[in-house]
Design brief:
mainly alpha; 21 helices; about 80% helix
């Protein structure tokens, strides 16, 4: 076990992509077992790790988001958000957060949100008098709403590998995502008064909201279409994702905003992102098999329970472990490795499987905006030119606020499970 851990850490530190790190560490673990016939498990687990029908939903959701972003949907959503809250003190920061909620229902990915708004809203905020680090911090804080509010690729991964209802996870993610946005907007309101943040032009009016809604309603149909099909029991998440792609393509063709060149670039981008995620899933399956063979999950569970058996303490320890691992490991790899270990432990102390999944996903989502490997930080730094250190410094208040939301979600199950129970999940 020590050799595998050292292999993993050394390869990660020298900069080897995490997908290869997981595979090499898993093969080293199999070699340590001492039986050569076990080497056949590596290619078997590589393919078996991907042999799940729900995984097909991921490339479809990613492609649908690419199409909607390429057709200018992001700009229309920002206009609607600005009409709703842009007139407040710190209006563009509020608009950023509201637009993140709307955009989350289309892409389900934090990095897509960070890239889209890093290119559009951050420069607009800077031109209105906001500091660039603060604008990036607001965008980063809002970006994790993407994989929290459905559809979420992380929920597809978790539901597939843990056998938990993906539709139930989607329903359970609505309240936490909205709560994150409300808490961040409350923080922006406080900063607005304290720092005298810029205020939008004019006042709230129904006419501007209606005009913005008329322009953006085609985009708002997509999340309603996806959730309606899944939560209504009409389609599986994979089928709903395919419908979303068809809808996005039809919208782009009608609006004449797509070309063959655009389609090629979007397919290439989708293939690249999907390939990275699938490589991590496949190689993590090899490492996961070795961990199961060596009964490491059981050892970790016993170690946590031996410290103290109180459910509240166990939940706190698991949250700290997730947040710590998230500092150094890719979120997809962390989810695939830790979920089979921690989820059964959480259900043992009485936590509902859907609630456990949402808590784990939200904790790992927060790691998307924490250094040193926070993906959203790197995306924003690359598209805006701002230093990661400056973004992180401005981000701390939002990070603490979202950690507070995580604590509430972890210890108040009714808040998370209200909508799933209402829908019968």
């Amino acid at each position: 076990m020590l050799i595998v851990a050292l292999t993993f850490i050394v390869l990660l530190l020298i900069g080897l992509p995490v997908g290869y790190v997981l595979g090499v560490a898993g093969i080293v673990g199999i070699a340590q077992i001492g039986e050569t016939q076990f080497f056949a498990m590596a290619p078997e687990r590589f393919f078996a790790g991907l042999d799940l029908f729900p995984f097909l939903a991921m490339p479809f959701f990613i492609l649908a988001g690419e199409i909607m972003n390429r057709t200018g949907i992001t700009a229309s959503l920002v206009k609607l958000a600005d009409a709703l809250v842009g007139w407040l003190r710190g209006g563009m920061a509020h608009s950023n957060m509201v637009a993140s909620v709307m955009f989350a229902g289309i892409t389900g990915a934090a990095t897509a949100d960070a890239a889209a708004f890093g290119n559009t809203l951050v420069p607009a905020m800077v031109s209105k008098g906001y500091s660039r680090p603060f604008a990036c911090a607001v965008t980063a804080a809002g970006s994790i709403i993407g994989p929290t509010i459905p559809p979420s690729t992380l929920m597809v991964v978790y539901g597939s590998i843990m056998g938990v209802s993906i539709a139930g996870l989607f329903a359970a993610g609505i309240v936490p995502g909205v709560l994150i946005s409300l808490v961040c907007m409350a923080l922006i309101a406080i900063f607005g008064r304290r720092w005298n943040l810029p205020k939008g032009d004019g006042k709230f009016g129904l006419c501007p909201v209606w005009n913005a809604f008329k322009e953006s309603w085609p985009a708002l149909v997509m999340p309603a279409l996806i959730l309606g099909c899944i939560l209504g029991g009409f389609t599986t998440p994979t089928e709903a994702a395919a419908i979303a792609v068809a809808y996005a393509l039809l919208l782009g063709i009608i609006q004449r905003k797509l070309s063959w060149s655009d389609l090629y670039q979007m397919l290439a981008r989708t293939s690249l992102v999907t390939g990275i995620i699938f490589l991590i899933i496949a190689t993590a399956s090899i490492l996961g098999w070795w961990m199961t063979f060596e009964q490491i999950p059981q050892a970790i569970a016993q170690a946590i329970l031996s410290v103290r058996s109180s459910p509240s303490v166990v939940i706190l320890m698991i949250l700290l472990l997730l947040l710590f691992i998230g500092l150094f490991l890719d979120i997809n790899a962390a989810l695939i490795i830790l979920a089979p270990v921690l989820a059964p432990l959480l259900t043992t102390i009485g936590m509902e499987p859907v609630h456990a999944g949402i808590m784990i996903i939200l904790a790992l989502n927060i790691s998307l905006m924490t250094p040193p490997v926070g993906a959203c930080l790197f995306v924003l730094a690359s598209v805006t030119g701002e230093r990661i250190e400056a973004i992180t410094k401005a981000l701390w208040p939002f990070l603490l606020a979202e950690l507070g939301v995580l604590i509430v979600i972890a210890y108040w199950p009714t808040l998370t499970l209200f909508i799933p129970r209402l829908l019968g999940f």
